[in-house]
Amino acid sequence: MPFFSVIIPLFNKAEYVERTLNSVLLQSFDDFEVIIVNDGSTDNSLKIAESFTDDRIVIYSKDNKGVSTARNYGVTKATSNYIAFLDADDIWKPNHLNALHNLIVDMPSCALYCMGYIKQKSEKSKIRAQFGTIADGYKGVVSGYFKNSLPFTIAGMGAVAVNKAKFIEVGGFTEGVTHGEDIELWTTLALQGKVALYNIVTVTHLINIKGRVSNLKIDDKVFPDFNQFNEAERKSKDLKVYLDNNRYAIALAYRLAKDSKNYKFWKNQIELENLNKKQKLLLKLPVGLVVTLKEIHQFLLEKGFYISTFR
């Protein structure tokens, strides 16, 4: 039995998957299996993945059902007690699995294990995730997971490992949810168990920002039902603030898409006192001006200037 099962959902990532797989195979800790779930790719992604001859790689192909279903399917095929998730366009540093392994050995009772990460929004824009007041280099159980998951979520996709038994116990990713499925699952795990963090950067998470804001499609996106956490939110102000910031992101996406019905639905769930001044302003400004500001924001990101309404 390998120590880690690395789960990689694959859908039309021909431009990136070779680099991603190489980053896995170059790990200094080599006790792992790689489970690639080809989720109905229509480009050369599968062919590129099949060109790798490492015995640790196993590929399964299935009809396209979305990333949540693909990850859950991968876990059913996993033989390890710990699952490390990686998207097919992200990159691990060679010490990633070794650092995760050490974290698990030191703190074996946790449900979720996290590493530091960089978000790369363009070749010029690389942003180091900052977790509240947690210092760089911190290694241990996280106190105040939700409070410290702003402006960046401590558990970043590609930078986490989960206890397989805990994953199965909570039901895995909600199938059918296409955006925010990771936020939902990490929240569930953080409410039920301990979260460990080793705050050194071992992951680069690529963010696609191409395309005009006015052309972004949202009709086919399915977001989690955060109302499932209402009771927990009543007991935890930090959780309410954290989820309201995620609700704000969804509400703003619908506003940018000029979908007033869904915008109002998500906005009405937010306690505005939990947002900062910039966020409140964007919810008040005329839609056309918000779209223009977002396009300026994307342009600045591409040029290497990071501006966020979450801080």
From TrEMBL:
Could you tell me which residue ranges the Glycosyltransferase 2-like domain spans? 5-139
- What terms describe the molecular function in GO for this protein? hexosyltransferase activity
The record ties this protein, via Pfam families, to:
Glycos_transf_2
Keywords for the protein's UniProt record, in alphabetical order: Transferase
Please name the SUPFAM superfamilies in this protein's record: Nucleotide-diphospho-sugar transferases (SSF53448)
Recorded hits in InterPro entries, A to Z, give: Glyco_trans_2-like, Nucleotide-diphossugar_trans
Q: What is this protein called?
A: Putative fucosyl transferase
In its UniProt entry, the species of origin is given as Croceibacter atlanticus (strain ATCC BAA-628 / JCM 21780 / CIP 108009 / IAM 15332 / KCTC 12090 / HTCC2559)
Read off the lineage from the record: Bacteria, Pseudomonadati, Bacteroidota, Flavobacteriia, Flavobacteriales
